[in-house]
């Protein structure tokens, strides 16, 4: 008997919702989709300005925080007829990156970053950079981010004395409040056995800026919080959730297998 038999699993993702749902159904579970990621909006005009400024100004470092952002800027440079100049400038700028998708872009472009976040988090990358910057003159930094913690990251670097150019080639719109409230109600009522989160954005969208004791209590009672990777898991844990299940490998399939194994072990005890 599959461990997900009779289990209702909430899916907070948008793009990967269908893939995750198929994986849940293969394990005899029932997926319930709540797309709370919010629609992704590419900022073409901003990207073009970012490329122009990057090529026209002098930067000591370029920090790339997401694969989507890195690719959006590269695609924009290509559209502008500046791809070769852009890649050449990247090759002559010290690079620091985080995330597996960003690293895939790095390899495709044959770039050689100085630092790569060891655990995929920005906190790890910032700590590494802080050690490198120690006892050095202020650096001029090109920081690619998006509308989640972007100003926080910029502020951290600026408080260390550095000059930061913030590049936001894309943003996420707010999700449908009816969908968000529907998921909240399902969590509080504990009508779902588990919720799958695939990004930090989804966690922020469900918890917002205010304390959500009813949600936290439900997660700490019976609703299982599941994260695809460490960044998402950290976002959930920071809300006060005591148990967050995550796979050893940050893959959708591994995540669903981890859930199935979790419930199978519970059934066997």
Structure explained in plain terms:
This protein has 269 residues and is of the alpha/beta class. It folds into two domains: 8-38 and 175-268, Rossmann fold, CATH 3.40.50.10090; 40-172, Rossmann fold (3-Layer(aba) Sandwich), CATH 3.40.50.10090. The chain contains twelve helices and twelve strands. It has a five-stranded parallel sheet with strand order 2-1-10-11-12, sandwiched between helices. It has a five-stranded parallel sheet with strand order 6-5-4-7-8, with helices on both faces. α2 (44-56) crosses α3, α3 packs parallel to α5 (100-108) and α9 (200-207) packs parallel to α11. The longest helix is centred in the last third of the chain and has 17 residues, at 252-268.
Please summarize the sheet with the most strands: 5 strands, parallel
The low-pLDDT segments are none
CATH topology of the largest domain: Rossmann fold
Q: What's the total count of β strands?
A: 12
Helix content: 40-55%
Q: Under the CATH scheme, which architecture of the largest domain would be assigned? A: 3-Layer(aba) Sandwich
Structural class: alpha/beta
Task: Assess the beta-strand content as a share of residues.
Answer: 15-25%
Helical stretch tally: 12
Mean pLDDT: 94
Radius of gyration: 20 Å
Distance between the termini: 15 Å
SSE pattern, N- to C-terminal = EHEEHEHHEHEHEHEEHEHHEHEH
GO molecular function: uroporphyrinogen-III synthase activity
Organism: Planococcus donghaensis
Protein name: Uroporphyrinogen-III synthase
InterPro entries: 4pyrrol_syn_uPrphyn_synt_sf, 4pyrrol_synth_uPrphyn_synth, UROS/Hem4
């Amino acid at each position: 008997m599959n461990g997900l038999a009779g289990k209702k699993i909430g899916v907070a993702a948008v793009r990967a919702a269908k893939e995750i749902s198929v994986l849940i159904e293969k394990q005899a579970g029932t997926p319930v989709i709540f797309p709370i990621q919010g629609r992704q909006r590419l900022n073409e005009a901003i990207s073009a300005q970012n490329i122009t400024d990057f090529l026209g100004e002098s930067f000591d470092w370029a920090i790339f925080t997401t694969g989507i952002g890195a690719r959006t800027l590269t695609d924009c440079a290509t559209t502008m007829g500046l791809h070769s100049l852009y890649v050449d400038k990247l090759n002559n700028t010290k690079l620091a990156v985080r995330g597996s998708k960003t690293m895939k872009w790095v390899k495709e472009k044959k770039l050689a970053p100085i630092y790569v976040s060891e655990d995929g988090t920005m906190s790890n990358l910032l700590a590494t950079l802080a050690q490198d910057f120690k006892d050095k003159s202020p650096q001029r930094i090109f920081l690619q981010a998006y509308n989640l913690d972007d100003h926080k990251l910029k502020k951290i670097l600026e408080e260390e004395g550095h000059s930061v150019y913030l590049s936001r080639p894309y943003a996420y719109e707010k999700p449908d409040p009816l969908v968000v409230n529907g998921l909240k109600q399902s969590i509080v009522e504990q009508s779902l056995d588990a919720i799958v989160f695939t990004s930090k954005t989804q966690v922020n969208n469900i918890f917002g800026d205010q304390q959500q004791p009813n949600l936290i209590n439900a997660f700490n009672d019976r609703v299982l919080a599941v994260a695809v990777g460490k960044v998402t898991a950290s976002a959930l844990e920071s809300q006060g959730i005591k148990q967050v299940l995550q796979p050893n490998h940050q893959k959708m399939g591994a995540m669903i297998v981890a859930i199935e194994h979790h419930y199978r072990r519970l059934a066997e005890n």
